[in-house]
Design goal:
alpha+beta, five-stranded mixed beta sheet, 18 strands
């Protein structure tokens, strides 16, 4: 951002980073007057560009005073451009003031010679001229917010501090559209301001088909101090309102961050479109590469699935054989465990052997037998003699025989013999057997 005035050049270097735009450098350079002005401007600008090490083709946005970039007040639609400009339309570059969204808009203009000179200086210093602003646009938003009579014009008396103080007068329409801007001398700003303001307002009112508001006394917005009171016999003292003091760099920063537009010299939209196209092409290539990788990976997975399926089909007989072998091994292990259990405790088989040896002859028939380590239970058919043949001697190793409650599944068979006995401990079994032998002998 370069602010050019007749006395000095203000520079504000902006850089865009990850977090947005930031102010990197700023400087104020005095300029020589007269014929040495262009050379002094280029020299000071070149020194700052080299000191800050700006890259080539850095974009440059110039803010120009009213003696270089002029303004034309808003006019009704259809007003010919030749009636508004002091030069032929082919000799100037123009741009409508788009700040006022409603109503007629003013016009910014600059002569082609000045435009060529500024572009030449920018190019010589390695800068790319992009846009030209009017100095009145620095205060356009504050003029829009200023209090005033409905439909009245507004004016800003700008007092720029520096080695040589500079003064500027900016006039705005009722909708804050740009109307006029001029450079004031020290005497005009301090002594003749009321007359100059009245003359400027009268000039606006005298324009043919002017759309400017009522040229009644307008509020004057000051940047630093109140103007001197009007002398006797001169125009009435204008009303005024104080503006918040800000440095030139702060005003340039606010202008940069706003949506105010100046005279566009070189559009940057094509660069953005090129960048977006490049990014889109890059993203498209990345997407295509990712899609190709996914397709390749899917093919690899399908091939792996087919290979694994073939391996499963090839190994299935072996697996079935291994499963059958495992089942047989488990059965053999269970048989071995059962054999070991029988070897350790053969009470169940002993009971079966004893009941088989003592069972009476036919017609007695054994229908049900349950033998375990806890006891013996059996049921069968036969006459009273068969039952008596079992009850009297008893069964060695078991206690007295008692009646067995018939299970449900034996109810229909109606066995006449249904007895049970508890297994005696090993130490009590021989004594029971010895006691039963003499009894049998005495009975015989």
């Amino acid at each position: 951002m370069l602010s050019l005035t007749p006395e000095c050049l203000h520079l504000l270097h902006l850089q865009r980073g990850v977090l947005g735009w930031r102010r990197a450098h700023e400087a104020q350079c005095p300029l020589a007057a007269g014929d040495d002005f262009p050379a002094s401007l280029q020299q000071q600008l070149q020194a700052s560009v080299q000191q800050w090490q700006l890259p080539p083709e850095t974009r440059a946005h110039w803010v120009l005073a009213g003696d270089i970039l002029g303004l034309v007040a808003a006019q009704p639609p259809g007003t010919p451009a030749a009636a508004l400009l002091p030069f032929l339309p082919s000799d100037v570059r123009t741009q409508p003031d788009l700040f006022a969204r409603t109503g007629p808009a003013g016009t910014l203009w600059i002569h082609q010679d000045w435009l060529a000179e500024i572009e030449r200086i920018s190019a010589q210093c390695g800068l790319q001229l992009v846009e030209l602003y009017a100095r009145a646009q620095l205060f356009q938003r504050e003029a829009a917010r200023a209090r005033g009579a409905a439909g009245a014009c507004k004016a800003v008396l700008e007092q720029l501090e520096g080695p040589q103080p500079q003064n500027f007068l900016h006039l705005y329409g009722a909708n804050a559209s740009l109307a006029r801007s001029r450079v004031l001398s020290a005497s005009e700003a301090s002594q003749n301001l009321p007359d100059i303001l009245s003359a400027e307002l009268a000039a606006l009112a005298a324009q043919p088909a002017s759309a400017t508001a009522d040229p009644s006394p307008a509020p004057v917005l000051l940047t630093s101090q109140r103007p001197e009171p009007a002398q006797e016999g001169r125009a009435a003292e204008p009303r005024w309102q104080a503006l918040q003091p800000r440095s030139e760099a702060d005003r340039l920063w606010q202008l940069w961050r706003s949506d105010i537009e100046g005279i566009s010299v070189r559009a940057t939209h094509e660069e953005w479109l090129g960048t977006l196209k490049g990014l889109s092409l890059g993203l498209g290539l990345l997407g295509a590469a990712a899609l190709a990788a996914m397709i390749w990976h899917d093919g690899q997975l399908q091939q792996q699935i087919e290979q694994d399926g073939s391996a499963v089909r090839r190994d299935r007989p072996r697996v079935e054989q291994a499963r059958a072998l495992k089942a047989r091994s488990l059965q053999m292990a269970a048989a071995v465990q059962a054999a070991r259990a029988l070897q350790a405790d053969n009470a169940a088989l002993a009971g079966l052997a004893q009941i088989s040896a003592q069972w009476p002859p036919p017609p007695a028939t054994l229908l049900y037998l349950r033998s375990d380590a806890g006891g013996l239970a059996f049921a069968g058919s036969g006459d009273e003699a068969s039952a008596q043949a079992l009850r009297e001697p008893g069964i060695p190793g078991y206690g007295p025989l008692t009646e067995l409650p018939l299970p449900d599944f034996l109810s229909e068979a109606a066995p006449s013999i249904h007895l049970q006995a508890k297994r005696l401990p090993p130490e009590a079994a021989p004594a029971a057997a010895a006691a039963s032998t003499p009894a049998r002998e005495g009975g015989a």
